[in-house]
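Question (not urgent): is this output format expected?
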Amino acid sequence: MIGLTLIGCAIGAGVFFLIVQIRPPRPDPLVMLARFDRAQTAAVVQTDPSPAKSAAGAETRLGRWVSMELARRGIAYTSLRQDLALNGQSFDATMGRKVVVGVGGFLIGLIITVFLGVAGLHLPIGVPVVVALMFAAGFFFIPDFDARTAAGRRRKEFKRALGAYLDWVSLQMSGKAAAEQALPEAAKIGSGWPLALIRHTVTNATRSGQDVWIALTDLGDRIGVVQLRELGTLVQLVAHDGAQVRDTLAARASSLRTEELADAEGTAGKRDQSMLMAQILLGVGFAVFLGYPAVVSFMRI
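Got this back:
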């Protein structure tokens, strides 16, 4: 009995640790923006031997080694990098977390099989290892799913803000403002993180002398927003003509609104289907509830 209790405590502690690793605390948007900016600058080796950062540093070093090995084998993890960049998370830290979570899943699988063996269920030879490997594989990809889900929500929010931003830029250019002046001014209309990210990118490009549209193209490529990347590439082709730039921005803003409306209609349709299925199941259950006594009475005759 004591052994089963200790095994249950170990499983609970392991599950709690894995939950903390899979879903770390969500940082402040300004902190995420600072991390995003730091990730785009040149890497600086920091030597901070403080004990408070030892665990996170070990996890990051492990993830850096894993990412280097993957790069040597031609595995780029491009979509995961884009999702993590949009979420303000480090790729190296996430890869280290994936390894730690995978090892934890392997140990949990072994503990569960041992628990079943102690309970009297005799498993064939090799089954515990197979079960542990299945747990390890499942837990290893949980951070990917979590990052993809969070990035999907943030990407929709960014596209919504991008449409409003392009509308405001084209409106300012209609008032005879140049694109170099309209881009940073339009980014000041809101305080949300998407506009803060655009404002940060535009300001840095302006101060460093880089072409703003190239900077926006790079931003769209880093965070996986295809519309922004295509917009920057397209505007670079017509940047010499202010009227064409204005028309291109207005057309892309209209396209983003149409796409957002189509997504909203698709989501509403899925919810309608879910409600319809729920109503059908409720009606079937109610019919079974009413008809069961009559069927039982008929069978007894």
